[in-house]
Amino acid sequence: MAQKSENYEQRIQTGCLLILTALGIAGALYAFSSVLIPFVMAIFLTLCLIPAIDVQMKWLRIPRRTAMLTTVIIGCAILVLAALLVTNAANQILKSKDDYGQQFRQLLVKTRGILPPEWYTADPNDPNGLSDDPSEPLIRVPTNTIRKVLTDTAGSIMGLLSNGLLVLIFMIFMVAGKGTYKATVGSLWWEVETRIKRYVLTMMFTSGITGLLVGLVLTILGVNFAWMFGFLAFMLNFIPNIGSVIATLLPLPVAFIDPQLGIVSKVLVLVIPGGIQFVIGNLLQPKMMGESLDLHPVVVLLSLIFFGTIWGIIGMFLAVPITAVIKIFLQRFGYTRAIADLIAGKTDMLTKT
């Protein structure tokens, strides 16, 4: 009886220490985010590039140093092309912000004519009356507000790309510093590397198909910045559940205020990319990924909220692989194995005495 009581107290102490440790780690992640975000992002990108090195060495018989050099060059070229694509689109948005503001106000004017009179804007000369001027918009949107929204959006995109140089430096040193050592099958690092590689390759493949199809469809429909939206669909596909919804909704404002697009085209801008996201995200991606991460959907959502709160949009990109690594570590220790089972959705322990 005394032994059971001692074990019970020890488990309580261990649980309290785990909670305090988790709070301390969360505080450290938030405090040192300016350094940790580029570092973790570089690790993620390095895991994306390592399979390319292995393929060149195994199938093309290219020496390791040459394969590393070509892989780094290809990775840098992809990052530069992505940065140029987003930067060019952001500059075009800034240059056309006045035109978009005018088109948005014209859209509100057209919308006013099909809505009930009580929804009209008030007549400025008569506080108790309503304006009957058909040229008056439904909602008075200040031009400065539209300019501010567009400017802030472009500024956020440029700020996201500003850390690219630091990420690139970290990535080059990580790729160059990887030796010929291979982790033993069944070891902790082997499990981490295997699962994350599979996740990265699956997401790169499915996200690439998604971005290509979305960009192609929007180009055929005549939507402005079609390939920028395709690239954003590729990037946002790394954010489970939420990313696909955001990627589907992003082109809608640009399509709706474009007078050259018809009603059918505007509807297809929502329907076709949404269908692509649904098919790939719910049919193709789960079959390819299988149980590689073994995370419960609720845990995935909570990890998105947590890392998105402390690290912003980059934290949402990295939330799933980081949570998967944490689960692997917790699974290796007896006292924390029950927590790993909960993360995987195995709730048998909750029903046991």
Can you tell me about this structure?
With 353 residues, the chain is mainly alpha-helical. The chain has a domain of 149 residues. The protein contains 13 helices and no strands. It is globular, with a radius of gyration of 25 Å.
Poorly predicted regions? 118-143
β content, as a range? under 5%
Please state the structural category: mainly alpha
C-alpha-based Rg, rounded: 25 Å
Categorize the overall geometry: globular
Distance between the terminal alpha carbons, to the nearest Å?
16 Å
Order of helices and strands: HHHHHHHHHHHHH
Q: Strand count, sense and closure of the main sheet?
A: none
> Could you tell me the number of beta strands?
0
Instruction: Work out the helicity level.
Output: over 70%
Secondary structure tally, helices: 13
On the 0 to 100 scale, the average pLDDT is 76
Short description:
With 353 residues, the chain is mainly alpha-helical. The protein has helices spanning 2-31, 33-59, 64-95, 97-112, 143-162, 164-177, 188-221, 226-236, 242-249, 251-256, 263-289, 297-331, 337-343.
Keywords:
mainly alpha, 13 helices
Q: Could you outline the blueprint of secondary structure elements for this entry?
A:
Blueprint: H1 2-31, H2 33-59, H3 64-95, H4 97-112, H5 143-162, H6 164-177, H7 188-221, H8 226-236, H9 242-249, H10 251-256, H11 263-289, H12 297-331, H13 337-343
